[in-house]
Design a protein that fits this description.
About 45% of the residues lie in helices and about 15% in strands. With about 240 residues, it is an alpha/beta fold. It has a five-stranded parallel sheet with strand order 2-1-3-4-5, sandwiched between helices. α4 links the parallel β3 and β4 (about 115-120). The longest helix has 24 residues, at about 220-245. It binds flavin mononucleotide.
């Protein structure tokens, strides 16, 4: 299992988010996982320039100039993504917003379809509800399955934190073991339908992406997700078979 964590705090390894995520990943479940944690202070991500090249061509001209290409590769290769931001003025940090802007064209193509996500935030006392609901919405728009959240304030006890870890463990196992347990949001359903209706009529990069990935064959997000998950399952069985040969 590949796990990628992205922490939107410039305090990097000194941040509380880093400490919590590290603690969570110590669980037996991740013993054999390949884990990578990227922190805001270790990444150079430029501001989106608003050129819309990503929406029109699938290519961002900034990707060759900063670390975004690396981040995208890590996200695409991951089985589990942990997205984390401190609460700054009742929202995500500037770094995290910047990163999301650079990824937002993937919300028209569901590039991260079926990837499991844990969202995390740390706050002194208030504002976590805005950060959690924003991160949840954005990751859903990218096609991810948000399985749980870590929410820490200055007064969160170790017991409360362990309880949050446990909830995530249960949700992750249920989601991985049975496709029927996967939680699809109304937002994903509506987004898929409206994009499908619009993109089927308009030629261009996004239309071609949907065409090449057989997305127009599916009328709902759930049907497309089930198709992708069964494809991934088949690929992993084929891979195991190749290795055993
Ligand atoms: C610019 C800035 C804005 C902040 N805004 C809030 C806020 O709105 N509400 C709050 O309770 N704490 C706020 N804080 C405190 C941080 O959310 C808190 O210290 C958090 O635990 C930092 O997480 P980290 O250690 O993972 O970086 C703010 C901190 C900074 C630096």
């Amino acid at each position: 299992m590949k796990v990628i964590g992205i922490i939107g705090s410039m305090r990097g390894k000194n941040s509380r988010e880093y400490e919590i995520i590290k603690r969570y990943l110590k669980s037996e479940k991740y013993k054999n996982a390949a884990i990578k944690i990227l922190t805001a202070d270790s990444l150079n991500i430029n501001f989106c320039q608003g050129c819309c090249s990503c929406f029109n061509t699938g290519i961002c001209p900034l990707d060759s100039k900063d670390d975004m290409k690396k981040v995208k590769t890590d996200l695409l290769e991951a089985d589990l993504i942990i997205v984390s931001s401190p609460v700054y003025a009742h929202q995500v940090s500037g770094f995290m917003k910047n990163l999301i802007d650079r990824l937002s064209y993937w919300s028209h193509t569901f590039h991260l379809i079926g990837k499991h996500v844990i969202i995390c935030t740390s706050t002194a006392s208030s504002g976590s509800e805005y950060v959690l609901s924003y991160l949840k919405k954005i990751m859903s728009a990218l096609g991810c399955i948000v399985i749980g959240e870590l929410n820490v304030t200055n007064i969160t006890s170790v017991d409360e934190l362990n309880e949050q870890f446990q909830h995530i463990e249960i949700a992750l196992s249920e989601s991985l073991n049975n496709f029927d347990n996967i939680n699809i949001t109304t937002f994903q359903h509506v987004l898929f339908k409206s994009l499908r209706t619009n993109l089927i009529k308009v030629n261009g990069y996004e239309h071609n992406y949907w065409m090449n990935n057989h997305m127009f064959n599916y009328f709902t997000f759930k049907d497309y997700l089930m198709y992708k998950l069964s494809l991934q399952k088949k690929q992993s069985v084929d891979k195991k078979f190749e290795i055993s040969l």
